[in-house]
Design a protein that fits this description.
By secondary structure, the protein is α/β, with parallel strands linked by helices. It folds into 4 domains: 4-24 and 151-232, Glucose Oxidase, domain 1 (3-Layer(bba) Sandwich), CATH 3.50.30.10; 36-143, PtsI, HPr-binding domain (Enzyme I, Chain A, domain 2, Orthogonal Bundle); 298-430, Phosphoenolpyruvate-binding domains (TIM Barrel); 432-586, TIM Barrel (Alpha-Beta Barrel). 47% of the residues lie in helices and 13% in strands. The chain has helices spanning 39-64, 70-73, 75-83, 86-97, 102-118, 123-144, 169-172, 191-199, 234-256, 299-303, 311-324, 360-366, 368-381, 397-416, 436-443, 454-462, 480-496, 513-518, 531-538, 543-554, 559-585; strands spanning 4-6, 8-11, 14-22, 158-162, 178-183, 203-205, 218-222, 227-230, 271-276, 293-297, 330-333, 387-391, 426-431, 449-452, 499-502, 523-526. The strands form 2 sheets. An 8-stranded mixed sheet has the order 1-8-7-3-4-5-6-2. Strands 15-14-13-12-11-10-9-16 form an 8-stranded parallel sheet. Helix 15 (436-443) links the parallel strand 13 (426-431) and strand 14 (449-452). The structure holds phosphoenolpyruvate and magnesium ion. Magnesium ion binds at residues 392, 432, 453, 455-456.
Length: 586
């Protein structure tokens, strides 16, 4: 077996620990003894799971009707017959009556049936065993999507290995012992990668062959080079332990500038803010290091739950986030689900092109209840601190007009009913769909600020799926066309006298810092793990140097040329800094 696997570097740092494979939810079927007073509730869950699987099978059957042969479409009839077989239901209920929880009951009954079929002489009947396994998997998944169980590492460090790291996985993992993330799929800008960076966990994604390494295999995850080494040799371990130590030394050096102002060499202030995915991730958040939360991706908190949070629950959550931010502004982005961020309890249609589909603000405007509740909650929470509202995936003025109307109506309702709220809340829009750029003069009068979502903006401008590793090489934000577009956005915002920040991943990429500053950006919001590197870079250039660099870069005719220029200009300073660190350590 190949020991050195190459993938995409998704989150920096080195991890050394054994891997734990998470094949699917089925590997973690919860088994526990039910209390008799829960038997009835468990039987309701049984009905719900059967209903969900039936719906799924019928949908699949309809979808495939014109595509596969008629007799093949009947395999779903066979599966439906099993799900609706009264004996099957009785057998599962009998297990529940013996105190077995639903998922384990499914597993037991299916295994019993399966062994009967598998032992039959008739090959056609033996085939039915596979049908049973399939139906068992669907039922267990249907029951577990409502109640995912936590993985406990029993105090041992581990590296998460899976086909993909999905945002909702973060909710079920024992994060205190999670040292690294390795996956077979995913790209540098997928939400799983963003999440690993924001959790500060080294990650490599898109690794062919990683699923073949069994649980327990010792690995080195090199999140900077995008390499995973299985069963490392003593020399490799030694090398990477040294690297870990060096990184700690760099971190120590970076810690020295922790509370120094975020200014260029000639004193131009650039506000550094943090991106946050949930209140838990803000646990060791250092409010004094940042100017606030520039992007709170509220959808992650929604994804960790089993159903939509109520207005009061949301108020409590947003207040907590604001408290942790120490009174500094917190920018709550309204629910941005859809695309690669599904909500388990909100059925979304199968889409051929989810990234171009029903997501972000378009979904919320079609289901205004979601938007009303969330905006009301932010307005109420805002009474006790500094909250802002940010709208994702906006494509033009009319969507902003509708959101403004909702907001104004809610403010009026809260005022007339005497509920505390922030009546002057700032409203901003993400600039992440390219068509927004030319229409900014129409949109800007309606908003207080812009936030550039370069992750999606780059994806849509270059027509490269940010989650598809096959085209990942083409996803390059240093493309001169992207740089020129960023400049146009800044110019529009400046002309309208409105603030503009960058909250996509390039805001935390220190190679990008001088260019962004040179393009006129004065607010950068990033995963906290990058704050100090970016600040160091900022403190190494004058504003004029940044401007010259940005102008030259944006005027180049290829991405490669831009990268070369950046390397020449930045590497020197960065290596000088690293050299100084090593020197100071010895
Ligand atoms: C972006 O698109 O740049 C962004 C910040 O939003 P998300 O990554 O959550 O889509
Ligand atoms: Mg986005």
């Amino acid at each position: 077996m190949v020991r050195k696997l190459k993938g995409i570097a998704a989150a920096p740092g080195v991890a050394i620990a054994p891997i734990v494979q998470f094949h699917s939810t089925l590997d973690q079927i919860p088994t526990f003894k039910l209390r008799p007073d829960l038997f009835e509730a468990e039987k309701h869950r049984l009905s719900d799971s059967i209903a969900a699987v039936t719906e799924g099978l019928l949908g699949l059957q309809r979808e495939l009707a014109g595509t596969i042969a008629h007799q093949d479409a009947r395999i779903f009839d066979a599966q439906l017959a099993i799900v609706h077989d009264p004996t099957f239901r009785k057998d599962v209920e009998a297990e529940i009556d013996n105190g077995v929880n639903l998922e384990a009951a499914f597993q037991r009954v299916i295994a019993r049936y399966e062994s009967v079929f598998a032992g039959m002489e008739n090959p056609a009947m033996r085939e039915r065993a596979a049908d049973l396994r399939d139906i068992g998997r669907q039922l267990v998944e249907a029951s577990m999507t409502k109640e995912r169980k936590k993985y406990t590492a029993d105090g041992r460090d581990y590296v998460f290995a899976a086909d993909e790291f999905l945002p909702s996985d973060a909710g079920i993992l024992d994060r205190s012992h999670l040292r690294g993330i390795v996956t077979a799929h995913g790209g540098k800008y997928s939400h799983g990668a963003i999440l690993s960076r924001s959790l500060g966990i080294p990650a490599v994604v898109g690794i062919e062959g990683i699923m073949d390494a069994p649980t327990g295999t010792e690995v080195i995850v090199d999140g900077d080079a995008g390499v995973v080494i299985l069963d490392p040799s003593d020399e490799e371990l030694q090398h990477y332990r040294r690297l870990q130590n060096e990184q700690r030394a760099v971190e120590k050096r970076l810690a020295e500038i922790r509370l120094q102002p975020s200014v260029t060499l000639d004193g131009v202030q650039v506000d550094l803010l943090a991106n946050a995915e949930s209140v838990h991730d803000m646990a060791d958040f250092e409010a004094e290091e940042v100017a606030g939360i520039g992007l709170f991706r509220t959808e992650f908190a929604f994804m960790e739950r089993r159903q939509f949070p109520t207005e009061d629950e949301q108020v409590a959550m947003y207040r907590q986030a604001m408290e942790r931010a120490g009174g500094k502004p917190v920018t709550f982005r309204t629910l941005d689900v859809g695309g690669d961020k599904p909500l388990g309890y909100f059925r979304m249609p199968e889409e051929r092109n989810p990234v171009l589909g029903w997501r972000g603000i378009r979904l919320c405007l079609d289901w205004p209840d979601i938007l009303y509740t969330q905006m009301r909650a932010v307005l109420r929470a805002g009474a006790l601190g500094h909250a802002r509202i940010l709208l994702p995936m906006v494509t033009g003025r009319s969507e902003v007009v509708r959101c403004r109307e909702v907001l104004d109506q809610l403010i009026e309702d809260l005022r007339s009913t005497g509920v505390d709220h922030d009546s002057d809340i700032e409203l901003g829009v993400m600039v992440e769909v390219p068509v927004m750029v030319p229409v900014l003069p129409d949109v800007l009068p309606l908003v207080d600020f812009l936030s550039i979502g370069t992750n999606d903006l780059v994806q849509y401008m270059l027509a490269v799926d940010r989650d598809n590793q096959r085209v990942a090489k083409m996803y390059d934000p240093f493309h001169p066309g992207i740089l020129r577009t960023l400049k146009q956005i800044v110019d529009h915002a400046t002309a309208a006298g409105k603030r503009v920040s960058v909250c996509g991943e390039i805001a935390g990429d220190h190679w990008f810092t001088p260019i962004l500053v040179g393009l006129g950006i004065r607010e950068l919001s990033m995963a906290p793990v990058f704050l100090r590197r970016v600040k160091l870079m900022l403190r190494s250039f004058t504003e004029v140097e940044c401007r010259n660099l940005a102008e030259r870069a944006a005027g180049m005719s290829s991405t490669r040329a831009v990268r070369q220029l950046v390397e020449e200009e930045i590497q020197v300073r960065w290596s000088r800094f690293l050299g100084a660190t090593e020197g100071s350590e010895t």
